[in-house]
Write a structure and sequence with these properties.
The chain is α/β, with parallel strands linked by helices. Helices cover 47% and strands 14% of the residues. It has a single domain, classed as Rossmann fold, CATH 3.40.50. The protein contains 10 helices and 7 strands. Strands 3-2-1-4-5-6-7 form a 7-stranded parallel β-sheet, with helices on both faces. Helix 1 crosses helix 9.
Length: 262
C-alpha cells in the first residue's frame, strides 16, 4: 500500500538500511527502492534472503547494492557505511535498523557476555555507524538532504518482560541517543528521528517469542491484531522525506496498534 504512494524528494537518494534482509528492514528496502532511492541493502548471516530480495527489487527496476557486515562489531559497522558510500559515491540517509534480542535472559542471571553481545548489536552499532556516516550526511545536507532514522522498540518504554530487559534497555539507549543526536546534528541540516515498532510478526518474534507470549501481547493491543512489517514502512518514508517532515526533529514515532500511548 505505502509503495504505491509517490514521494518525489526520495528519488535518487542514497540510503543505507542496516538489517535489511528480512522483517521490517526488507519492507523498507522494497519501499525505498519503489520511491526511486538507491538502496544499500545490508545483511550479515542471511545471504540467501538478501540475494532474493535484491533480485526482486532489481526485477522491479529498483536500484540496490548488497552490503555484508557484522554490525555487532565496530569494524563491521564502519564497513557497512564505507561500502554504501563506495557503491553510490555519497550517502543521503542512514536507517539504523540492525538489531536483535540475541537471547532472553533475566537481569538476575545476565552475564557480562550477555550484556556485551546485546548492547554491542543494538547500541554500539548505532553509535559507530552513525559516526561513520555523519561526514557524508553533512555533505548531503548541503543539498537539502541528510537524515538518520533509528529503529528502537516499544520495549524501550515499557521495560520489556520475559527476559527481554537487556534488549529493552539497549533500545532505551537508542531512544535517548536519537534525541541527543538530533540536537547535535540539526545545526548541520541533518534530521534525526526514530521509529518504535510494537509487536510485529517478523522473524524476530519467530525466533524469540512463544505463541503464548504473542497471544498475551495481543490482548493488550486495542486494534486487536499483531502488526506486520509493512505497518511500519509509512513512518520511515515520512521521516525520510524533508518535504513531509522538515520540522520534525528528535521524535520517536510509536507504531504499535495502540498498545502504548505515551
Amino acid at each position: 500500500m505505502t509503495q504505491s504512494l509517490t514521494i518525489p524528494d526520495l528519488a535518487g537518494k542514497a540510503v543505507l538500511i542496516t538489517g535489511a534482509s528480512t522483517g521490517i528492514g526488507a519492507e523498507l528496502a522494497r519501499a525505498f527502492a519503489a520511491q526511486g532511492a538507491l538502496v544499500g541493502l545490508h545483511y550479515n548471516a542471511s545471504l540467501a534472503a538478501a540475494e532474493a530480495l535484491a533480485a526482486e527489487i532489481e526485477a522491479g527496476q529498483g536500484r540496490v547494492h548488497l552490503i555484508r557486515a557484522d554490525m555487532s562489531t565496530g569494524e563491521g559497522s564502519r564497513s557497512a557505511v564505507d561500502q554504501a558510500v563506495a557503491a553510490f559515491g555519497r550517502l543521503d540517509g542512514l536507517i539504523n535498523n540492525a538489531g536483535g534480542m540475541v537471547r532472553r535472559v533475566s537481569y538476575e542471571n545476565a552475564t557480562e557476555k550477555d550484556y556485551d553481545e546485546i548492547m554491542d548489536l543494538n547500541g554500539r552499532s548505532v553509535v559507530v555507524a552513525t559516526a561513520a556516516a555523519i561526514p557524508h550526511l553533512k555533505a548531503a545536507a548541503k543539498e537539502d538532504s541528510g537524515f538518520i532514522i533509528n529503529t528502537t522498540s516499544i520495549a524501550a518504554r515499557n521495560g520489556a518482560s520475559g527476559g527481554a530487559g537487556l534488549y529493552g534497555s539497549s533500545k532505551a539507549f537508542v531512544h535517548d541517543m536519537t534525541r541527543g543526536l538530533a540536537k547535535e546534528l540539526i545545526p548541520f541540516g541533518i534530521r534525526v528521528n526514530a521509529v518504535a515498532p510494537g509487536v510485529i510478526t517478523t522473524p524476530f518474534h519467530e525466533r524469540y517469542s512463544t505463541q503464548a507470549q504473542l497471544n498475551a501481547a495481543l490482548g493488550t493491543i486495542p486494534q486487536g491484531r499483531l502488526g506486520v512489517a509493512q505497518d511500519c514502512v509509512g513512518a520511515y518514508l515520512f521521516l525520510a522525506s524533508r518535504a513531509l517532515s522538515a520540522y520534525i526533529i528528535g521524535q520517536v514515532i510509536e507504531v504499535n496498534g495502540g498498545q502504548l500511548m505515551p
